[in-house]
Structures are given as structure tokens and as C-alpha cells.
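Deliverable D2.4 — example input (C-alpha cells):
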């Protein structure tokens, strides 16, 4: 009888209980495999999205003219032939901080492209279209040097951002009467831009460069600066240019701002027996702009300065400020350049 019971129990286990256990295990294994597959799929999808983000493909613009330029490297005097938009990546990365707003960088790319084509049409260099000296044309830095100056963890994303702004606006330029404008730009206007006539004495043929106001520039480090000199230091610097200069430092009338421009920059200053243009005063004393005040402090002469640069055209910090307020690149350009159009270079006459 015992044997019959044992056989019966073994029969029940083999026929019913064991298959149930095996099926449960298979279900658990299948669920685990499915979960692992979903996780792996999610990781692969995220990796693909990241790769796609870091390798944005741009349709190459077919420049009918100006697609390749001759760039003069001022230090070596070598001339390099380079694609226009590749060159502009080096320019934009040299001229504007990569952490500025995307729309500000796009505006800078369009401005730099316009400036380049204007320079090509109005040649200054015999065998080259433009040079890499910011004092002559516009700044330029090699990709290798630019990457080395950024933090290592920002290099790839910063360069991708620059490329997005340049290649994403390929072919776009700023025009007035269907011709590229002389697209001047500077670092910080101090609140208002300047007329070219007050900087270089000309500009009547550039009516698109007017005085415009921009808010928010005082939040940038480029907005405010000071230069303080002793009386002897001030006199010595002036004598380098005006050997006969004489100043009575006890007479408040001997150091005095005589005239301002429409944008509140200094036009003329009296130093003793000379009246000197504000632009020249800026150069003599190394001031950041001509928007300054002069005060006496403990016997020293102090220049309190607003803004950075000549003040003509687009303010770069002003562009960034406008972008933070919601303006796109075309809004920014129309703010700083009056009565202009943004066109494709292939549409020029």
C-alpha cells in the first residue's frame, strides 16, 4: 500500500507540479530578459540621440561667389585659401564668447559674413581678401588654439555651437540698397551706439549706422572700467604727442570736457593749452571707449569709462542682452542696423 501511495505522489509531482515550476521560471526569465532588452534599447536610443545632437548635418550652401576667400595671416604674411564659412567659424569663435546666447552668436555670424564680403568688394590688401588682425579687419583664431583655450569638457559642445551658428545661417548677409553693408561691431556700447563720423570723421555713405539704445549692457564686465593717473603720469603721456602742453592742475578749467556727441560720448576735451578729440584721448590713455567722465581724486586724475570699443554698429553684449530678452538673430540685426535687409548673398546684383 505504501508503495502505491509513493508512486501516486511521484506521478502527481511529475505530471503537474514540476511543469508548473518550470513554466514560472521561464516566465520570470522572459520578463527579466525583456526588461534588460528595454533598458539596453533605451541606452542605445539615448546614445544615438546624443551622437545626432553632437554631429548635426548641414546642407552646404552653394556660393555662386565668395565661397572661397584668401586669408592673410598677419604674423607670417602667408596667404591661405579657405572656405568662407569654415573661416567664419574661426572668426566667430574669436570675436564672441561661446557661452553667449545662440541667437546672439547667429547674429555675429551674419555680421561677420557681411563684413567679410564688404571687405572683398572694397579690397584693402593687394593679394588677399581679408586679414586675421582685428585692428585691421576682424579677429581670427585657429580651431586648435580655440579648443585649447576652452575647458576640456566644453570644447566639443562649444565648437558644435559655433558651427551651428555659422553653417545654420550660411549665405545670409545684411544689405542696404541690395549691397552688403560695412557691418561694424564692437564689445559694449555703454547703453547707446555711436555714429561713424564721430569716430573716423566719415560715414555719410553709411546711413544704416545710427545711434540706437540697448538695455542690459550694464550687467556685463565690459560695461564699466577706470583709469587713474597721477598728475605727472598724465602730463608725461600727453607730452608724447604734444610737447608744448602746459596744464595748471589747480585750475578746474584746465582739464574739462568741452563737447559731447549725440550718444553722450566725449567729443572734445581741454587739457591746458590744447583741445583734444575724445577719440585721441581714448588712445593716449588706453581707455576702453570715449564714453567717459574725468574727475580729480586725491590729486590724481581719474577716468570713469562706460562701454568697450568704438561703439559703431552691433554691440556684442547688447546682442546677447537682446537675445536673453527673446530677440532672434534677425531682430538683433535690425535693432543695430537701420533700414537694412537680410538676404542671401547669391541674390546680390
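Example output (designed residues):
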Amino acid at each position: 500500500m505504501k508503495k502505491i501511495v509513493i508512486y501516486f505522489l511521484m506521478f502527481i509531482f511529475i505530471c503537474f507540479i514540476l511543469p508548473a515550476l518550470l513554466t514560472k521560471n521561464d516566465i520570470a526569465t522572459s520578463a527579466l530578459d525583456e526588461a534588460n532588452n528595454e533598458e539596453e534599447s533605451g541606452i542605445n536610443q539615448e546614445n544615438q540621440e546624443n551622437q545626432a545632437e553632437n554631429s548635426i548635418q548641414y546642407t552646404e550652401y552653394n556660393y555662386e561667389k565668395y565661397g572661397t576667400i584668401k586669408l592673410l595671416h598677419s604674423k607670417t604674411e602667408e596667404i591661405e585659401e579657405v572656405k568662407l564659412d569654415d573661416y567664419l567659424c574661426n572668426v566667430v569663435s574669436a570675436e564672441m564668447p561661446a557661452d553667449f546666447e545662440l541667437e546672439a552668436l547667429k547674429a555675429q555670424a551674419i555680421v561677420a559674413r557681411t563684413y567679410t564680403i564688404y571687405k572683398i568688394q572694397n579690397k584693402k590688401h593687394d593679394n588677399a581678401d581679408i586679414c586675421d588682425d582685428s585692428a585691421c579687419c576682424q579677429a581670427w583664431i585657429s580651431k586648435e588654439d580655440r579648443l585649447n583655450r576652452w575647458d576640456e569638457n566644453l570644447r566639443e559642445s562649444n565648437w558644435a555651437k559655433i558651427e551651428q551658428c555659422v553653417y545654420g545661417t550660411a549665405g545670409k548677409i545684411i544689405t542696404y540698397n541690395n549691397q552688403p553693408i560695412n557691418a561694424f561691431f564692437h564689445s559694449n556700447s555703454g547703453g547707446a551706439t555711436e555714429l561713424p563720423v564721430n569716430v573716423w570723421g566719415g560715414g555719410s555713405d553709411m546711413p544704416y549706422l545710427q545711434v540706437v539704445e540697448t538695455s542690459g549692457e550694464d550687467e556685463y564686465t565690459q560695461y564699466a572700467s577706470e583709469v587713474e593717473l597721477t598728475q605727472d603720469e598724465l602730463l608725461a603721456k600727453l607730452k608724447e604727442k604734444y610737447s608744448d602742453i602746459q596744464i595748471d592742475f589747480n585750475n578746474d578749467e584746465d582739464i574739462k570736457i568741452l563737447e559731447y556727441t549725440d550718444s553722450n560720448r566725449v567729443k572734445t576735451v581741454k587739457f591746458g593749452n590744447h583741445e583734444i578729440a575724445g577719440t585721441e584721448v581714448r588712445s593716449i590713455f588706453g581707455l576702453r571707449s570715449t564714453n567717459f567722465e574725468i574727475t580729480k581724486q586725491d590729486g590724481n586724475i581719474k577716468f570713469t569709462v562706460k562701454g568697450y570699443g568704438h561703439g559703431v554698429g552691433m554691440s556684442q553684449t547688447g546682442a546677447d542682452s537682446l537675445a536673453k530678452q527673446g530677440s532672434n538673430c534677425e531682430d538683433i540685426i535690425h535693432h543695430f542696423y537701420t533700414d537694412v535687409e537680410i538676404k542671401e548673398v547669391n541674390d546680390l546684383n
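The first strand starts at residue 68 and ends at 73.
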